[in-house]
Amino acid sequence: MPRYRRSSLRYLAAPLGLLLIGTAAPPAPPPAPAAAAWQRFADTLGVRFAMIDNNPPSCPPTFADCFTAQLTLTLPRDLPASSEQAGMRLYYGFVTRLIGFDSDVFQDRFVNGDLHELRLKPGARLTPGSRHVITLTGRGNFFSTSYVMPNYYVVTPAGAALTVRATRAVIDPETGLETLPFAAAMTDERRLAQGSAPDRTQWLSPARAFQRYASWDAASAPAVSARPTAILPTPAFETAVPGAAVDLSGGVTLALRGITRAPLAAALTQLAGAGARERRGGVSLTITIDPALRLAELPQDLSRRAERYAITVGDRAIAIVAATGDGAAAALNALAQETARGNGTIGRFRIADAPRYDFRGLHIDVARNFHGARELTVLLDQMARYRLNKLHLHLGDDEGWRLQIPALPELTEIGGFRCHDPAEDRCLLPQLGAGPDRAAPQNGFLTRDAYIALLRAAKARHIEVIPSFDMPGHSRAAVRSMEARYRRLMRSGNRTAAERYRLVEPGDTTRYRSIQNYDDNTLNPCLPATYRFVETVLDGLQAMHVAAGAPLRTYHIGADETAGAWTESPACRAAAPGGVVDGHRVGADFIERVAGILARRGVTAAGWSDGMGHADPAKLPAGVQGNVWAMLLDDAPAVAHRQANAGWRTIVSVPDITYLDHPAATDPDEPGYDWASRGTDLLKVFSLLPDNLPANASVMRDLLGRPGKAADPRPRQAGAAFTGVQAHLWSETVRSDARVDYMLFPRLLALAERAWHRAPWEPSYAPGTSYAYDDGKVDGKALLADWARMRLVLAAQMALLDRDGIRYRITPPGARIAGGRLEANTELPGMRVEWRPIGTAAWRGYDAPVTVDADVEVRARSADGRRASRAIIVRRRGGS
């Protein structure tokens, strides 16, 4: 097995109840009596985390919003000796800022990030079987059980770190979903669904979901105009061709003109897997490359796209003509989709197609929680199928460094792992519920060889890999790894080597706290060592890309959320006018300097818009990339237009829509952070207007559930255009590969649709136009009619995802009990529904409204019937 570790198996069958995940199996109890007593304590300590109120009567001074929660510890009857108890420490994760703590016997010490330590108050002793309720007050709001972190752990007086068994994550064998049994269900909508007074958010209860899906069904009732194919993204032009269907199960005979087989090998493999293998005497499949290709069916703005292609299916003959190899691969992937849907048989059709954007990206964060080469390769196949062509790979952040750089082995030997090591000489301290064990599945990294193999796999699928190590903020893994390197070399007496890559300045007394609560996550841009470090990392990266035959073309600096560091740095003060440090200017200098380093290497610099916006465009190379992650109904239009007007490659990365680590529904049981969106469902993603950002206010409500509105204070200039759209999966709450699939699919398909295909209901951008919710400036009826068609296409795609083993989210049904009869419907048509009275074991199929005399559970099943959604409770009277 390579040195990188997978975050979890894609699916774990567990016939004997729930399957423990999240840490390595606990070690066998040591023979020493004290050690055995502490192991029993960790195995039998009772833990319960419960949310109490998201809008309590009062908050601590200076805090406008807060929430209250309770952490209940139930002690075992068998406790370690009293003489040992004072030396015990209990560590837990709390991902928002703790601003209030109340306990009878415990005191809290904040460590860093989300890590906290509980210890006994002076003179306090533990009583066997006692119960201790700790009241926690946090800053902001706590709307989802996803904010609860697993893997609390006890550190004994002897220094052993033992995971508390009750806090381990488990996998439900019915659904394959990770759950945290010690986190109490959030059921009180009145106290938990909303924050401050303007918040109008409502949970998507079963009854509300039923009404929502019923309205979609009604919108499609007038008759959904059939498409000749179910290819996704929707082709720009498609039409049926008269004649009998074509059977490809007997194979295809390939003829290539103007291209070799190598650039098409991966796409041909997809076609073979769909049921059309290459065989003599098969249906003729001719692929021709014509760089001067003109397609009369395409509008002018698409006719110049490099990926333009046409497919014509005739009688035992399929002709593909494309302008480039990228276009030919796109055509083959489209053909493979339709072949798989028809089980080897396709109708006759003509398609002319090209993408609306050249940049169609997927961002995957493997830094917070590691996901290895196997899962990434699975995602590459799905990206190719749905014509996404940029993999933005987030390899370094505060919580981990995930790519081997041979010249700096500490980056992965230490920064690739989290465990309980207060000195951080072996690993980083645990964050985000990683637990104390270095062998935990959230740890690991890509070796040089694994990364090169990944680059080759991406190239074969016509996908560019854009690596990213966030700097100068979000750099704790790098900073602490280089500090460990410094200490090691200093112990050997080699001061020169020790200081060569040191990223902090000993005399810097600046005190800061990042948005993720770190006080040591920012490297110092005023130190020469910082740029030696950057150049060495880039040397290693570029060497790997060259070895893979996929030269590094774009590098993402990050440059976001840099805390107020450096104000007391002697090096920065020495360089600052009058000795007064402007933190924004220091950060901008770093961006400008690194962008210049990259330009000299022939690499385009990219970064998040908040950091890039501080840089002086005149000091940046032409054509840098900015990912616009401002809020859509706030300043995203102004930020995006400013970047486009400056000639930057502007990528729409608005978190309200494109952050697929956010919940798919406003439900406390749906996983994901929710700071930008309480619920991002399929229709919301499908409704994105990426080229006319202000117009989204016509169809969207804001974060608090209020009708949207948007002005256009900084209009886009004539000729200024956006370069593309990117989906994002940050991994703070994504601890398994199965959860990666759940969060991305099927929503990624809706995002791919918007990145490739412009819908007819999207109004053209008109500079200076303002929009308000439901103002009619976006044709709502046309949008819903298009959505009705898309629901059918998405339903067809679920079978393909099942075949590939993608553990996509199965949306729970909408359901209600009206007049004593259970009624249910589904987000996508054709999904099977099951129900049972609460307390019974056997599930029953639902085909039509059924009379019930008690509360029931309802769930949906995957297209292949092998997996179930989480079950929802439908009550006969209220609460549904």
TrEMBL record:
Domain Chitobiase/beta-hexosaminidases N-terminal as annotated: residue spans: 43-208
Q: What is its EC number?
A: 3.2.1.52
Question: What is catalysed by this protein?
Answer: Hydrolysis of terminal non-reducing N-acetyl-D-hexosamine residues in N-acetyl-beta-D-hexosaminides
Name the Gene3D superfamilies on file: 2.60.40.290, Chitobiase/beta-hexosaminidase domain 2-like, Glycosidases, Immunoglobulins
Keyword annotations for this protein?
Hydrolase, Signal
Tell me the Pfam families matching this sequence.
Answer: CHB_HEX (PF03173), CHB_HEX_C (PF03174), Glyco_hydro_20 (PF00728)
Q: Which domain of life is it from?
A: Bacteria
Q: Which family does it belong to?
A: Belongs to the glycosyl hydrolase 20 family.
- Name of the molecule in the record: beta-N-acetylhexosaminidase
Q: Which organism is it from?
A: Sphingomonas hylomeconis
